[in-house]
From TrEMBL:
Pathway: Cofactor biosynthesis; FMN biosynthesis; FMN from riboflavin (ATP route): step 1/1. It comes from Streblomastix strix. GO terms for molecular function: ATP binding; riboflavin kinase activity. This is riboflavin kinase. Residues 1-140 form the Riboflavin kinase domain. Its EC number is 2.7.1.26. Gene3D superfamilies: Riboflavin kinase-like.
Length: 145
């Protein structure tokens, strides 16, 4: 089943990740329907290439480790594709309008619903930390090509 490719333009999300120190790049569902059906909901690991709108065409593609969450967000009726790029240079860099190419290599876990409270937020942060550690370990064994 893996790897699975997703592509799309980065769009503005709910800003929850940005305000919680885990900024994500959200791409549109359109054009990814078949891959989303194949994957289902969950948290996945893989690589991403980012092509920013003002970037000139060149032959060099840089791939970055990512953790991607696919599932229904509270304010959306369709699945969201939220990708956390595990490279510190992207933390404060808005990517709106950039083209994101994802190659997902595996699933870390199914979705977990956390309660909307300070305790739930702490549990979510701890889980994200575990997801990132596990993703880095798995991705270190895959050749980016």
């Amino acid at each position: 089943m893996f790897p699975v490719e997703l592509k799309g333009k980065v769009q503005i999300g709910l800003q929850n990740g940005t305000t919680r120190a885990v900024p994500t790049a959200n791409i549109e569902e359109e054009g990814n329907e078949d891959a989303l059906k194949k994957l289902g909901d969950g948290v996945f690991y893989g690589f991403a290439a980012v092509k920013e709108p003002d970037e000139e065409q060149n032959n060099k593609t840089s791939w970055y480790d990512v953790v991607t969450n696919i599932g229904l967000a509270v304010a959306h009726e369709s699945p969201t594709i939220e990708t956390y790029i595990l490279d510190s240079s992207f933390v404060s860099r808005p990517l709106y309008g950039a083209e994101l190419s994802l190659i997902l290599h595996g699933k870390l876990r199914n979705m977990i619903k956390f309660e909307n409270s300070p305790k739930g937020f702490e549990q979510l942060k701890q889980q994200i930390g575990k997801d990132v550690s596990e993703a880095k370990e798995k991705l270190s064994k895959i050749n980016k090509g």
